[in-house]
Amino acid sequence: MSENKQPTIYDVSERAGVSLATVSRVVNNNGKVKEETKRKVLKAIKELNYRPNAMAKGLASSKTTMVGMMVPDLTDLYFAELAQGIDAVAKIYDYSVSLSVSDNNPTAGKEAFETLMSQHVDGIVYIGNKTSQEMFDLLKSSPVPVVFAGSVAQDGKLPSVNIDYVQAFQQAGDILKQHLSDTQIALVDNPGESGLSALRQQGFLKAVSKGKIYESEDDYRSGYNLAHHLLEDGIKGVIVGEDEPAIGILNYMLDNHVKVPADFQIISSNDTKLVKMTRPAISSVTQPEFDIGAVSMRLLTKLMSGDPVDDPTVILPHEFVLKDTTL
Amino acid sequence: MSENKQPTIYDVSERAGVSLATVSRVVNNNGKVKEETKRKVLKAIKELNYRPNAMAKGLASSKTTMVGMMVPDLTDLYFAELAQGIDAVAKIYDYSVSLSVSDNNPTAGKEAFETLMSQHVDGIVYIGNKTSQEMFDLLKSSPVPVVFAGSVAQDGKLPSVNIDYVQAFQQAGDILKQHLSDTQIALVDNPGESGLSALRQQGFLKAVSKGKIYESEDDYRSGYNLAHHLLEDGIKGVIVGEDEPAIGILNYMLDNHVKVPADFQIISSNDTKLVKMTRPAISSVTQPEFDIGAVSMRLLTKLMSGDPVDDPTVILPHEFVLKDTTL
DNA sequence: TTGTAAGCGTTATCAT
DNA sequence: ATGATAACGCTTACAA
């Protein structure tokens, strides 16, 4: 931990024998600079190991090249995979990312947002389920662009990146209907989830008009605890909105000697790496989480630089992988 | 996205009829300010919805109240859980966190570090396996404090937070030795992992002096692919350094009708939520990931404010949960 | 207790 | 093509 303070642009200009302005020009690669001067400056920069001070730059230019990433829970693999995509593209465009775990807590969310505002981030990628109306209003009031990654704003017209949940859940319903009747099929979802659960429900009901709908949280335990109700109600196949509760349901069945998929079928939909790790492996909607994150961040870069954007709500393709929890 | 620019400290001082300095004093709660003046200022702040500009503040005070968090991969649940702990404590101490996914790539790691330096973070929490010597040197040269969370520096004496891996792996070895002989027991680990794998190995060999050691990556597939070698070599029980390869091994056994735990035992050691989700559930070292992250961040706050720190290398307690992959 | 004013390290506008 | 110099919004001696 050496203590010599960082060299400034002033040191560079002195060493290179040019003015501050010129150094700034070569650092930011704008304005005309003679090749030779440029070389001198670059040399001085290298020798001093000069790094521009991001704060000073931000203050002077009112651009921070920093984006905020709001995420409810990093230990939810779906979110983690989105985050990786976001981070990867942020790196490409030289944005740093300020992380804020909002914990699905409205207060924490509000504070996180405030922090991002005082940091003067140039934009925000918002990942969220259970987004409160208050939070939406806050986000809508943002002076910088906001993109919803893997979630939609309630009014459905803020920039966002998702798969076509209506279609996906209709297809999932159709798959279960091949062997089951409507009343034997259920949807298990977390209704708190932004506008997404409404879309899922809509798709589900398109295929399974008399299908029943159960609520669960996003975690393993909720699924496990819900499972016996499903059995009591004569449900023989479920579509689950999140992977962890899907695994909870699966394990309950296994622990209670219910044969999967013979007597109980499961389709999950977040397609995290979890679904490959269970036995039987879980049949699932396949979605490009990484890409959803990546495209969200790319969209944000466009928004931030005022580039034209054809459609701010982008839909990415999904597929199905039918493994061993469906017939 | 309204466009009225943010109010500054100047607007507040004007509205409250006091000087900049006074506003600054009440905002930072230092220096003496008369109760009445304070009230006036607070009122103005509220009315204008004033938020201090973090960059200006950072520039002027050369403190950013921002820490860097370097992590190789967010989709590794062990890291994600550490990150949650770090974030939680950062919030408590009002630090924002600048995220950098280093991807186990030395170049990316170096760039991430550079970015944090130009952001002038006040400190860094480093999470990493496979840390290159170059990266260590870089971290050691940091002008701000660095804490290793869930990993140790090669020379073992930089600030870090971990469990006692030597003891844990010795205990794990002892557990398997209850039903198996030395030559039937193996350690599966990723030797690239900072200094940790050396410690694990050391503990393992203490209990199982003639035990064999296999290398694997940190992912599911590596474990799955390694499994048949274990069988061919007559191994009947393994201790695995990471959960995902442990599950890979487990699933290979299941897929090939090897009875677990009767004919093959497994103990894993990262204790992510994954180990509860398999069937049979995996026996595992139990470690307080969240706390490791939390304590790391807390340690960093002390280091950053120059508080005395008794021992910079802290060891947190671990336990064992023997579920269904051990006899 | 409160105010004045000099930085902090850049960018950006004018000149030259 | 290059250089001065005034911002940017805040903190912090130093004065008052």
From TrEMBL, chains A, B:
Residues 7-61 form the HTH lacI-type domain. The keyword DNA-binding applies. Gene3D superfamilies: 3.40.50.2300, lambda repressor-like DNA-binding domains. It comes from the Bacteria. One of its GO terms (molecular function) is DNA-binding transcription factor activity. Keywords: DNA-binding, Transcription, Transcription regulation. InterPro entries: HTH_LacI, Lambda_DNA-bd_dom_sf, Peripla_BP/Lac1_sug-bd_dom, Peripla_BP_I. Pfam families: LacI, Peripla_BP_1. PROSITE patterns: HTH_LACI_2 (PS50932). PANTHER family: ARABINOSE METABOLISM TRANSCRIPTIONAL REPRESSOR, LACI-RELATED TRANSCRIPTIONAL REPRESSOR. This is Catabolite control protein A. It comes from Oenococcus kitaharae DSM 17330.
